[in-house]
Amino acid sequence: MHKRFTSFALLLILIAANMRIAIIVIPPLTTMLQHSLGLSTSQIGSLTSIPLLCFGLFSAIGSLIIKKVGLHTTLITGLIVLTIANFVRVYSPTLLFIGTLFVGLAIAVLNIGIPILVLSWFPGDQIRLNGLYTASLNLFAAIVAGGTATTAQHLGWQHTVQLISIPALLAVIYLGIFLLRTPKQVAQPAPSSAATTETAATPHHSVYQNSAVWLLMVFMGVQSAIYYARLPGFPVC
Fold first, then answer.
1. CA 185 from centroid of its chain's CA atoms
2. Does residue 198 have a pLDDT over 60?
3. Whether residue 183 has pLDDT greater than 80
4. What pLDDT, on the 0 to 100 scale, is given for residue 205?
5. 83 CB burial (10 A radius; 0-12, 13-18, 19+)
6. Rounded to two decimals, what is the model's pTM?
7. d(Cα 19, Cα 21) in Å, to the nearest integer?
8. Virtual torsion, Cα 178, 180, 183, 189, nearest 10 deg
């Protein structure tokens, strides 16, 4: 059990590493993108907005995809799309926008799948694992935000962006190995007849009436605001 938890924690760290870096890598490179690809200021602005629009408009389809094709297949596909889309988007202005669109779509779906993955494998440790996920996400995002400009000066902006595909590729490989080598979560025992009767007698309320859901939404929104918003007078990271 301890070995499986450690393996899962490492998997979670690898996936978390990809949840912001493909987005954060672009803003420090805007000047280079303008000079290299001839992009206008409005095009740069729309480029950095595409992933955010994907989060807002397409996050709802993540649960539908998971229901249709399965959680693990969805996660593997999302990571593969993220890897390829990020790698090829440096070759032309058209590919830059199309690739960024698919990057946003992939991350939007992965955002939905990660909490479900934690809940399906280690429901009793979800607080600890969600904390690990958030800390890893922030750590890798900070590393990329601080090192992108320097790396681009030495390797060029194209190679700098393509380096971001490596963590996604590693996550795909490790997820496949984890699923092949790790026993499935033991199924929970069926509820007793008394518990079933009690559950049936309990009225079902809308998820929107659950205060915990609203608190979680506010928490995740504030977390995202660290990257996507700023107060007047404060520099953009």
1. 23
2. no
3. no
4. 52
5. buried
6. 0.79
7. 6
8. 100
Residues 138 and 135: their CA atoms lie apart, in Å, by 5
Domain ranges across the chain: 2-187
With a CB cutoff of 8 Å and minimum separation 6, the contacts of 121 are 8, 185
Amino acid at 50: I
- Give the CA angle between residues 200, 206, 211 to the nearest 5°: 110
**What are the backbone dihedrals phi and psi of residue 12, each rounded to the nearest 5 degrees, phi first?**
-65, -40
CB-side exposure of 216: number of CA atoms within 13 Å?
Answer: 11
Burial 193-219 (b: 16+ CB within 10 A, else e): eeeeeeeeeeeeeeeeeeeeeeeeeee
Pick the CATH number of 2-187 from 1.20.1250.20, 3.40.50.200, 2.60.120.10, 3.40.50.300: 1.20.1250.20
* Tokens describing residue 234: 């404060």
Joined tokens for residue 87: 């790698």
Read off the amino acid at residue 99. Answer: G
Query: In angstroms, what CA-CA distances link 190 with 59, 187, 193, 195?
Result: 32, 9, 9, 10
pLDDT digits (tens, 9 = 90+) for 60-86: 788 888 889 999 999 999 999 999 999
| Secondary structure class of 3 (helix, strand, coil) | helix
Distance from the Cα of residue 229 to its chain's centroid: 18
pLDDT in tens, 34-63: 898 888 888 888 888 888 888 888 777 888
Instruction: Read off φ and ψ for residue 31, nearest 5 degrees.
Output: -65, -45
Confidence of residue 98 (pLDDT cuts 50, 70, 90): very high
